[in-house]
Specification:
6-stranded antiparallel beta sheet, globular, Jelly Rolls, alpha+beta, 21% helix
């Protein structure tokens, strides 16, 4: 399972329900002789690009390079905010970060055939991201919503040249809930096509993510608030195993 290339509308599931989106799955560009590719480690391999536009691959590789630098800068800031050295992530759980990239296209739902009270279907249902951070670029259609305490949802208004940054499960686990992973969902009700470009900054594939010895008492576990009803704080193991387990439910 390399998880590279295009998937059709409805080809990806959230909580067992097909999403109303299609997209292109991409990651770090690895040659066939890379040790992890040769060992058939899941989610590692060459990217698969459409024939048109012909230069898409070069553009994406360059874009991912810049996004990687942004992710590293954000992690340096978070490390300092937690009272650690700014290079803590780079020297520990992100020595070889797992970096994934997606191009998502949300077709507008056909609202003309909806019965009264019928929901048009989520572009993406409620979920949290799996790694440390997600850096999201989106167009001006809107549709992204995040959940606040008390089960209150708010719209994330798109702004030109502004990235949205989501906290992921591993940063939640690492900080024992001082940073909460962000429940979010997408409903494209604009009547237009929507596109978004999430870049995922994750721990190294073989990193074991354990709680930091931070000062003060940890917040109460928020398992009842989570979309899947499962606590990230009771999980243990290598990040690659966590990611494969999650992805296997998206593409069963």
């Amino acid at each position: 399972m390399t998880l590279r290339g295009w998937f059709a509308v409805g080809g990806e599931l959230t909580s067992g329900i097909p999403d109303r989106k299609e997209g292109l799955y991409l990651g770090q560009e690895l040659s066939d002789d890379h040790p992890r590719v040769a060992a058939k480690v899941p989610l590692h391999g060459r990217n698969l690009y459409p024939e048109n536009p012909a230069d898409l691959g070069k553009v994406i590789v360059e874009y991912q390079r810049h996004m990687s630098e942004i992710g590293k800068a954000l992690l340096r800031g978070i490390a300092l905010g937690l009272g650690m050295s700014e290079d803590w992530f780079a020297e520990t759980i992100c020595r070889e970060p797992t970096e994934l990239f997606r191009l998502f296209h949300y077709p507008p739902p056909d609202l003309s055939n909806l019965k009264e009270g019928e929901h048009p279907g989520w572009g993406v249902g409620e979920h949290t991201d799996y790694g440390l951070l997600t850096i999201l670029a989106q167009d001006d259609c809107g549709g992204l919503q995040v959940k606040l305490p008390g089960n209150n949802w708010i719209d994330v208004i798109p702004e030109p040249s502004v990235y949205v940054c989501n906290i992921g499960d591993m940063l939640d686990k690492l900080t024992e809930g001082r940073y909460r992973s962000t429940p979010h969902r997408v409903l494209n009700a604009s009547g237009r096509q929507r596109v978004s470009f999430p870049f995922f900054v994750d721990p190294s594939w073989d990193a074991e993510v354990t709680a930091l010895p931070l000062e003060g008492s940890r917040p109460a576990d928020d398992v009842e608030r989570r979309w899947d009803g499962k606590s990230v704080h009771t999980w243990s193991g290598l990040y690659g195993d966590y990611l494969v387990n999650k992805v296997s439910k998206i593409f069963p």
